Amino acid sequence: MSKHASCPIVVLISGRGTNMRVLIEDSRRVPSSYAVAAVYSDKPGVAGLATAAALGVPARALDASKIADRAVYDELLGDAIAQYSPSLVVLAGFMRILSPAFVRRFEGRILNIHPALLPRYPGLHTHRRVLAAGEREHGVTVHYVTAELDGGPRILQAALAIEPEDNESRLAARVQGLEHQVYPVAVRWHCEGRLRYEAGAAWLDSAPLKEPLQLADLNLT
To answer: For this structure, is 114 an active site residue?
Structure first.
């Protein structure tokens, strides 16, 4: 077993939690560099909570609709997460924008995956916007979270060619397949100590990443 096997992570979701499920399953490989300690959702009753519970991971909703004050909600969420002393907080389809105070509290320990090739197409409805713009490629980006929306240091990307038959839903499904490939890689790197956030940049193997790595260029076999 890896010396990093006890590295705990907490996963935040807002819906089905397909990336969450992939991370839980990946964490149970032997050896593993991390374990999913808990799952939190900002919405009650979402499918991802049931999935996590069925996989034996503590799963709870902290209903954002009942707490109007954003700062209060983020403090409560942060306190709940802190109980697990996580090495990493992983956003997996978590649809709330985190406050600067929350980001500072877990600075350098929050990862997000965005369904676009950042810095292009930050924000919502990326598949629709990419198709409307007539782009030839699309993809995903794993990045550290900072107070700037989708603006944190980029770590790893995966791209695909847009096909003539792609519509918004078909493209979303294809891109989600890429998410499932790259997210566990970045989480493993962080928990193995290879990847870190320092001075506003992502560092891998003691060198700053001037550009995100591309999945197609990596030998992960």
So the answer is: yes
Question: For 45-54, what is each residue's pLDDT tens digit?
Answer: 999 999 999 9
CATH-assigned architecture of domain 112-221: 3-Layer(aba) Sandwich (3.40)
CATH fold for the domain made of 1-106: Rossmann fold (3.40.50)
For residue 124, give both structure tokens: 């919502």
Q: Which residues of 70-95 are buried (b: 16+ CB within 10 A; e: fewer)?
A: eeebbbebbeebeebebbbbbbbbbe
- pLDDT tens profile 164-174: 999 999 999 99
pLDDT in tens, 59-90: 999 999 999 999 999 999 999 999 999 999 99
User: Is residue 31 within 8 Å of 195, Cβ to Cβ?
Assistant: no
Active-site choice (114, 138, 143, 180): 114
Region 141-161: mean pLDDT is 97
What pLDDT is stored for residue 2 in this prediction? Answer: 39
* CATH 3.40.50.170 location in the chain: 1-106, 112-221
